[in-house]
Design goal:
By secondary structure, the chain is of the alpha/beta class. The chain folds into three domains: 8-274, Rossmann fold (3-Layer(aba) Sandwich), CATH 3.40.50; 376-467, Luciferase, Domain 3 (Luciferase, domain 3); 470-649, ANL, C-terminal domain (GMP Synthetase, Chain A, domain 3, 2-Layer Sandwich), CATH 3.30.300. Strand 10, helix 9 (235-248) and strand 11 (251-254) form a beta-alpha-beta unit. Helix 12 crosses helix 13. The strands form eight sheets. The protein has a five-stranded parallel sheet with strand order 4-3-5-6-7, sandwiched between helices. Strands 12-13-14-15-16 form a five-stranded mixed sheet, with helices on one face. Strands 24-25-26-28-27 form a five-stranded mixed sheet, sandwiched between helices.
């Protein structure tokens, strides 16, 4: 591809010329998949850009984009880029106050949102976001009586743009020609685990070179099908659902809604799929729930062939030698179990699947690969335009994140921190030179904040966030995320937070998965009236104790981390929630918030108490505040000698 195609609007013109009738985007609406070709996409993006220009959008301006994955919102990115502007996507589930910070910090003048919910949030914070001048909306339901002069419907914007384009037919292409690879392409805001989010400034060269290198490494072509369902504000979605689509020319499809993603995934059958670990965890939970509801013969067949898959599936996928008997059994399993299961999950046509964002549990990773799904781990960040390392074909291991991606250099600092340098390295944190200097060296090396090392195969292994890796009182390493991922392999456990830094032993908070244990309760005629009641049910406690002890047995076989077996744990009375500040919008644990908010509960894990009273403020969906109170039982778990000896119940100290 020509080096002159150095921006996404230029690539749009290219695809509209060389593959005008090929599908560019699909959207499911009222149960029907609607397809737009590259030619149709170009025409709408031109009208949108011209309409924005008519409304006063100028080079350097910023457009906030808020909503679920919709073709019109993706097209808005390209439209403002064509005008020399910068898209600033926001998380659609952000509360109004979170949006206000980004709008004000990024000095956003224009916003394009999906529906009434997002309009209402912007109206609520308009006084704080002083630069916000005009708001455009796509779905007009509920907005009929909104009379503000600065509110405009998307269709009206298109009509103005088409009229302008007729009178100025060269305007769109002339504006695109002014752009170059060094221009700012997008501003992505980090999830803000330790404070206010930071605006990561990425140029076209950053994003496009990284996207092209990743596509060439995996052999992606214009024939791929991708489902776009993750938040548009997340850099991962931007790379996979936007940048690589323009780089390779493949089609991206948008589901009808967040609630229909799994159904739409089955209908579409993508060839290229990306999901963070929590999505793969949720899918696995759904599978396990359905199997528990199945008849006894079906459960036995499933378990038998999953053992065959565990023994032979990964080796077959890696093209390694497998005994003939196991190959034949695996082929039978493909007919009876694996094939139907992949079809139900929408993974039958997947040629390449990625997971990233945080570490995935090895057991979960192996489960999918044993089914024949070519799932790979990659390691990256917003500051890298995603790609730092990728697992090459034939070198895929559950405990590594692969080798450096094309044109990426990776090194381990003296303190064990992973650092990288690449074409995708961000330009700066917007209006934050101090944080930029702390993260990026003058030579272009970026501090990731992750602790890791290269193994003897040349693969990078990430232990945990460097700031989260601690030491127990005996001086041994403590890596909480490693333990938490093992716990979350069980479908009954939705979230886990491990403790052990500067302590004598490891402990944990657990969240139950209401769907999984609700299904269990229904099957076993266990009545409950609320999340609290089910989470504190004696039988539920014993189920989770078994899971914890299973993790302990697994940890006992690890000479490096066997000392971090969990001695005591409790089941929280509420789900950890981003609206309560306990998780980021990408569902990463905010450990500092947890430590401050639940300090009494943490101390109860180490004080020998059998019970502890918990009273926690929560935020409801409508913004109201309330309290959830409960008396929680602190549970002991059995631990196992790391080398030899018999298991014994650990007494709380």
């Amino acid at each position: 591809m020509s080096a002159e195609l150095d921006t996404f609007p230029k690539l749009l013109l290219h695809h509209a010329e060389v593959r005008p009738d090929a599908p560019a985007m699909r959207e499911k609406d009222y149960g029907i998949w609607l397809t737009n070709s590259w030619k149709e996409a170009r025409e709408e993006i031109e009208a949108l850009a011209c309409g924005m220009h008519q409304r006063g959008f100028r080079r350097g301006d910023r457009l906030a984009i808020v909503g679920d994955n919709r073709p019109r919102l993706y097209w808005a990115m390209c439209a403002v880029q064509a005008l020399g502007g910068v898209p600033v996507p926001l998380y659609q589930d952000s509360v109004a106050a979170e949006m206000a910070y980004v709008l004000d910090h990024a000095e956003v003048r224009f916003a394009l949102v999906e529906d009434q919910e997002q309009v209402d949030k912007l109206l609520e914070v308009r006084e704080r976001a002083k630069t916000l001048e005009q708001i455009f909306y796509d779905d007009e339901r509920g907005l009929r009586n909104y009379t503000q002069e600065f509110l405009h419907h998307y269709d009206a914007l298109l009509a103005e743009g088409r009229d302008f384009a007729k009178r100025h037919p060269q305007f769109f292409t002339d504006e695109i020609a002014k752009g170059s690879g060094g221009d700012v392409s997008i501003m992505c805001y980090t999830s803000g685990t330790t404070g206010n989010p930071k605006g990561v400034v990425l140029t076209f060269d950053n994003v496009l070179k990284s996207a092209r290198n990743g596509a060439e490494f995996e052999g992606l072509t214009a024939k791929e099908d991708m489902l776009a369902y993750l938040p548009m504000a997340w850099v991962g979605d931007h790379i996979f659902s936007y940048a690589q689509s323009y780089a390779a020319g493949f089609c991206v499809s948008c589901p009808e809604s967040g609630a229909t993603v799994m159904h739409d995934l089955r209908e579409l059958g993508p060839t290229y799929f990306f999901a963070p670990p929590r999505i793969f965890e949720n899918i696995l939970t759904t599978v396990m729930i359905r199997m528990e509801d199945a008849s006894a013969p079906k459960r036995r067949i499933f378990r038998y062939f999953m053992e065959v898959a565990k023994r032979a599936g990964i080796k077959i996928l890696n093209r390694q030698p497998v005994p003939l008997g196991d190959r034949l059994l695996y082929a039978l399993g493909e007919l009876l179990v694996y094939g139907p299961l992949k079809n139900t999950l929408g993974l039958t046509r997947v040629r390449l699947a990625y997971t990233a964002g945080e570490a995935i549990g090895p057991d979960i990773f192996d489960f999918y690969r044993s089914l024949g799904v070519n799932l790979k781990q990659l390691y990256g960040s917003t500051e890298a335009s995603v790609f730092v390392t990728i697992q090459p074909d034939g070198e895929i291991y559950a405990d590594t994140v692969g080798k450096p991606a094309p044109e990426v250099e990776v090194k381990i600092a003296e303190d064990g921190e992973v650092m990288f340098r690449s074409p995708g390295v961000f330009q700066e944190y917007y209006k934050n030179p101090e944080a930029t200097a702390e993260t990026k060296t003058p030579e272009g090396w970026v501090h990731t904040g992750d602790a890791g090392f290269f193994d003897d195969k040349g693969h990078l292994r990430i232990i945990d966030r460097a700031k989260d890796v601690g030491r127990m009182n005996d001086g041994k390493i403590f890596a909480p995320k490693y333990i938490e991922n093992k716990l979350k392999f069980f479908p009954n456990i939705k979230e886990a937070v491990a403790f052990g830094h500067e302590r004598d032993y490891a402990t944990a908070f657990l969240n139950i998965d209401l769907a999984a244990l609700g299904s269990w309760a229904e099957r076993h005629n266990v009545a409950y009236g609320s999340y609290i009641e089910l989470s504190q049910h004696p039988e539920v406690r014993e189920i989770l104790r078994e899971h914890v002890e299973s993790v302990n047995r697994d940890l006992a076989g690890d000479s490096h981390l066997g000392h971090t077996q969990i001695r005591r744990f409790l089941i929280l009375h509420k789900e950890l929630d981003a609206d309560d500040g306990e998780l980021t919008r990408t569902r990463k644990v905010r450990r500092r918030v947890i430590a401050e908010k639940y300090g009494e509960l943490i101390e109860a894990l180490y004080s020998g108490k059998a019970e502890v009273f918990a009273s926690t403020e929560v935020t409801f969906e409508d913004g109201r505040k309330g309290k959830i109170e409960a008396t929680l039982t602190v549970l002991d778990a059995e631990t196992y000698p790391v080398a030899g000896g018999a298991p014994e119940r650990a007494a709380a100290e």
